[in-house]
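Q: I have 146 residues here and want to know how they pack in 3D. Can you give me a structure?
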Amino acid sequence: MGEPKPERIPLEEVYMRMAEELAKRSTCARLQVGSVVTTRDLTQVLGIGYNGNARGLPNSCDGPDPGRCGCLHSETNALIKAGAHEPDKTMFITASPCVMCAKMIINCNVGRVYYRTRYRDVSGLRTLAAGRVQTVQYDRWASLWR
């Protein structure tokens, strides 16, 4: 039998749902992704992001080809706002990151990544493991407190 339901919604689930809501702002035609960066103890949000075009450019993809839509990834947008100076950050992403985002996550001192769904290419997860970033596929309480 599994772990009993907590009395109130865990902060991990709160931040994952926040990332899911941010993904709804995405203008990417193929995959909407949202991200939230927090302190390790989950007491402060340091940055948020969703995938889309650069500020001031049209709110649309540059093209229809996967990997060439021209959207900035949600992880990039969140990490730009969070900065690299805070050590051992935690990140919540609606989909596991691509390799390039994984490398940015490593260089921005993120120590743990929670993701809701696994992206079609899992190379980013292997990159995070090589960079000693802990990853957690987090869907434990997705259907509760709704």
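Q: Anything worth noting?
A: The first helix runs from residue 11 to 23. The first strand starts at residue 34 and ends at 38.
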